[in-house]
Design a protein that fits this description.
Blueprint (H helix, E strand, L loop, with lengths): L2 E4 L3 E4 L3 E6 L10 H9 L7 E8 L6 E7 L5 E6 L6
Antiparallel strand pairs: 1-2, 3-4, 4-5, 5-6
């Protein structure tokens, strides 16, 4: 079990969340097809710390950015997605 501390609801089981993949900035409407293709399909798939987007389905129904170690599943930071990402 992965315990996620939601900034709005407190500590919750990861079963309450939907994983949304790596967090990245959405390209603008005028972006090239290559930029959109990269945004939609290319993933860094790092072994270590990465920022991911999760949606709290069974709670506050907000998107969260979570910094998680993909090797150990340790979580070091959780924040509302409206705050952006690093």
């Amino acid at each position: 079990m992965l315990l996620i501390v939601c900034p709005h609801c407190g500590p919750r089981n990861s079963d309450e969340f939907a994983f949304g993949g790596e967090a990245s900035s959405r390209p603008g409407a005028d972006a090239s097809p290559d930029t959109w293709r990269s945004y939609l399909y290319d993933r860094a798939n790092v072994a270590g710390w990465q920022t991911e987007q999760w949606f709290h389905v069974a709670g506050c129904r907000r998107f969260l950015n979570i910094e998680r170690n993909t090797i150990t599943n340790e979580i070091r930071r959780v924040r509302d997605a409206s705050e952006g990402h690093d």
